[in-house]
Amino acid sequence: MTSAYVDTGDAILATYKRAPMRMVRGEGAELFDDEGNAYLDFTSGIAVNALGYGDEGLKEAMHAAADGLVHVSNLYRTEPGESLARWFVEHSFADRVFFCNSGAEANEGAFKFARRWARTIGGAPKHEIIALRGAFHGRLFASLAATDRPSYRLPYRPLAGGVSIAERDLRELDGMLDAETVAAVIVEPVQGEGGVRVLDEGFLRELRALTRERKVALILDEIQCGLARTGWLFAHERSGITPDLMTLAKPLAGGLPMGAILLSDEIARAVQPGDHGTTFGGGPFVAAVARYVVERLSDETLLASVRAHGAWLEAALGELSSRRSDIRAIRGVGLMWGIDTVQPAADIVGRARERGLLVLSAGDHTVRLLPPLTIRRDELADGLSRLEASLA
Predict the structure, then answer these.
(1) H or E element in which residue 357 lies
(2) CB contact at 8 A, 203 and 238
(3) Where are the alpha helices (DSSP H) in the chain?
(4) What are the two backbone dihedrals, phi and then psi, of residue 246, each rounded to the nearest 5 degrees?
(5) Average confidence (pLDDT) over 127-156
(6) pLDDT at position 149 over 80
(7) What is the pLDDT at residue 3?
């Protein structure tokens, strides 16, 4: 196996540095390339493949969905989309749901809905969106403006206006949350691309109180950390807060493109027909598959397993850190962990791949672990052994 990145040629636009192997199949927590090499996958397709590879129930759900309608547009009602929306209303704070195609699209829509609501109570001046230091909310114009990655932002300036980034500090937020001008604050309960930073539960509760007092909508971006990744169905459940809007995507439809915006009744009542739209969002095929996925991810046995694996990983990574001076910190919860290293994360990712382990970076010096939620304990132990060898 080689760690060099390759040019895929002229056919695919080179927006990613792709690894050299070509994946052809998967089973459980393993991927296999076209040369027969096996890779223990601690990336889950960037938190998408929560059920691993080859899940029989997922395949059956896809086959059953293919026997029905695939697409009719949102001009007409279909049962799969309505059933999935009702499921979310029954299992969350939400009163209404909007389906779309991706996480970035979900965040863009949430910004629009928050501004639409804010205008009804504060007029045109109440439109500003605030994100936090370390945030990643997508690469479209408004979501990119809320993403704290200067290298991502610079080539595309000017970005959408009225979006700013604040420190993860309540005193600074207290000064910025002007009730007359701010429409919403968007927060990841666990920042993924920003280094796997678990926001303090007390911080989230105080921020919720502050936003409610100022009549500012609280948007929770759970695109990466939601849907069982932390060991709770929704990551914010750990803190006991209730948002006004929440965005979901990644694992939602088992690898099919789907995002969702969950809205409280107060926000939803401000949105009128024609205010937003989507051609494919919530189509019958993807919605039927997503219903199977969310039923699996909300199962208490799976959630308890993720919490137990998370506790084991915390202890195991703590022991690893105590043995190595090149590990500066570990952070995480459930099956979402970051390891701050002295070495460049990209070097470790490459060496791990040579040892048949797939891991991610989350910044220049953070290695990120996002294994399938169905992974076994012995596979976690095997992966950490390969990771430790890759640090050398």
Answers:
(1) strand 357-358
(2) no
(3) 44-47, 56-66, 79-91, 103-122, 141-145, 150-153, 170-176, 201-214, 265-268, 284-297, 300-323, 345-354, 377-391
(4) -140, 140
(5) 97
(6) yes
(7) 46
Write the CB contacts of 4 (distance below 8 Å, at least 6 apart in sequence).
Answer: 20
* Model confidence band, residue 1 (pLDDT cutoffs 50, 70, 90): very low
d(CA 264, CA 276): 17
The pTM of the full predicted model, rounded to 2 decimals, is 0.96
Confidence of residue 10 (pLDDT cuts 50, 70, 90): confident
- pLDDT, residue 7, reads 60
> Residue 4 above 60 pLDDT?
no
Under a CB-based contact definition with an 8 Å cutoff, are residues 366 and 195 in contact? yes
Structure-token match 């439809």, residue found: 253
* Residue burial 339-375, b: 16+ Cβ < 10 Å; e: rest: bbbeeebeebbbbbbeebbbbbbbbebbbbbbbbbbb
Per-residue confidence at 392, pLDDT binned at 50, 70, 90? confident
DSSP letter for 250, please: G
Identify any residues that bridge with 27 across adjacent strands, giving them in sequence order.
Answer: 30
For 153, the token pair is 């932002």
In order of start, what are the domains of the chain with their CATH numbers?
Answer: 23-57+300-391 (3.90.1150.10), 68-297 (3.40.640.10)
Looking at beta carbons, which pairs linking 311-318 to residues 24 or more positions away fall under 8 Å?
Answer: 312/377, 312/380, 313/337, 313/369, 313/380, 313/384, 316/380, 316/381, 316/384, 317/384
Q: Which of 250, 369, 389 is nearest to 306 (CA)?
A: 369
